[in-house]
Amino acid sequence: MYDYAFGDNVLQMESRRVKWIPHSGEDREAVNEAVEKILSSPQFRNSKRYPDFLRYIVEQALNGSIDQIKERTVGIEVFGRAPDYDTNTDTVVRYTAGEVRKRLALYYSSASNDPIQIILSPRSYHPEFHRLVEESTALEHVALPEVNHSPVPAQPAYIHKEEPEQTAARPARHRFALACALVLLGALLVWSGSAAWTWYRSIIPNRFWSPITQAKEPVLVGLGGVVFSAESEMGTKVADSTSENPYLSFESGLALGRVASLLSSRGADYLVRPSATLTLAQFHEGPAVLIGAYNNVWTERMLAPLRFHFSDLPNEAIVDGWHPGTRWSRDRAQPFSDKPDYGLVARFRNPSTDSMVLILAGLQRYGTDAASQFVTSPHFLELLDKQIGANWKDKNIEIVLRVDVVNGRAGTPIIERVHTW
After folding, report:
1. How many C-alpha atoms does 299 have within 13 Å on its Cβ side?
2. Strand partners, 327
3. CA atoms of 127 and 221, how far apart (whole Å)
4. Helix-strand-coil percent breakdown of the chain, rounded to 5?
5. Which tens digits make up the pLDDT trace of 201-222?
6. H helices within 6-130, ranges in order?
7. Which of 207, 226, 233, 353 maximizes the CB count within 10 A of its CB?
8. Do residues 397 and 415 lie in contact, with contact meaning Cβ atoms separated by under 8 Å?
9. Domain edges within the chain
């Protein structure tokens, strides 16, 4: 607010923000400059998906095509989805819009004086533009009464007194306005805190998954499986390239579901293949997620050079290559449904293929289930972040997990050992 004196009046300039529709070329240029400023902020500059979404919806609005901004259209034109893709199961547009909405709110919490604001209202993909305008109000100077210095008492001037009811009503109105302002301020603080917390909780999962989901190529998901075999004491054997219709454990199916859901929510394409049919050339093409240990031949091959890996059958264990005496194995003297299982999470760049690999594997099915829970849960990834610090996004990482099992029910994953390099 600014005051300018003009003779007996004061011109008071007050700024407020109003909804605005850009019309001229200069208007559109100003909006584009505002977009680029937003995209250079910490809330957007480390992402590719969110800037692409924001640029697209703003460009469509400036071109007069705002009615064309629909979920399916955005999915096709921004995220490369097929024209007939299922928007009920593939929520990339809704997820991205929610993240952009929250990040815009966080950005403007520290840039409230920007001349142009871009707002994405709830349950909408249509951007709104708001700008600051200044309005003037003329206030007359109030003349001070002259002081009579004569020893003769001046005649008392007539003084208008307000009615008692009016005098009492004014403080009441002020108190009501103050109470409303405090309520609005409290609501704003709660909303800002909630948005900031949601954004903070998304940072750590992004730190873990972005090396995989930001690749342009689809993520290859390799599933371990078994087939029935009369030659095996257990009645099954690991599926190979000649096996047809390999079987998955229930926990491996859960792991696949968690990974597929997370990849879809982050707008990443993926291909699911039996591990026995994969070739080394396919790992050159893009990132890969391998599920399962002793039922997945590629898990054993990829982990063999790393510090933590799986020992050879029949003595199933996770071993520490740096300390040969350290190993994690299940107690064979206890019932299968009442002894801890162990899992291994490994996220690393494979030097022979120069691609990112994520392995989720357990000694038995409970360990595989624990590994998939760990990497898809913000809570567990926060525990990892607190244990090893924040500077691990671009590092290779291995995590040994323990999961207690009682009466066939598995508990939550517990971190046993972590190694980064």
Report:
1. 33
2. 319
3. 36
4. 40, 25, 35
5. 458 888 899 899 888 889 999 9
6. 25-39, 49-62, 71-77, 92-109
7. 226
8. no
9. 2-133, 205-420
